Amino acid sequence: GDPRENAVAERVNGIIKDEYLENYSVNNLKEAKELLDAVIALYNEERPHMTINNLVPNVLHETTPNLKIKRLWKNYYRNQPTFVNLNQD
């Protein structure tokens, strides 16, 4: 129930919905499955990802495991120091 438990999957689902599925309408389950298969193929084979040097996931999976990855996005969730008992007498 808590979307924070699987943030990566939630992010991928959001990207697929917002970037690929927003402009389509489907009439039955068969059409939905075919469209989703095509969208997942596009996501994995053609869409560059900033988290992996603007490579597509399939290219990354086919390269050597020693490939150094430079993440190209900003992390807005920095660890903040925790201060306890600031007002001690």
Could you describe the 3D structure shown?
The chain is mainly alpha-helical and 89 residues long. 43% of the residues lie in helices and 0% in strands. The protein contains 3 helices and no strands. It has helices at residues 7-21, 29-45, 57-62. The protein is flat. The N and C termini lie far apart (43 Å). The model has no long low-confidence stretch (mean pLDDT 78).
Overall form: flat
Helix content: 40-55%
Low-confidence stretches: none
- Assess the beta-strand content as a share of residues: under 5%
* Secondary structure tally, helices: 3
Cα-atom Rg, whole angstroms?
Answer: 19 Å
Structural class: mainly alpha
Mean pLDDT: 78
Largest sheet: none
N→C terminal distance: 43 Å
Beta strands, count:
0
Order of helices and strands: HHH
Oligomer: single chain
What's the topology here?
Blueprint: H1 7-21, H2 29-45, H3 57-62
Provide a concise account of the structure shown:
By secondary structure, this protein is mainly alpha-helical. Helices cover 43% and strands 0% of the residues. The model has no long low-confidence stretch (mean pLDDT 78).
Defining traits:
mainly alpha; flat; 89 residues; single chain
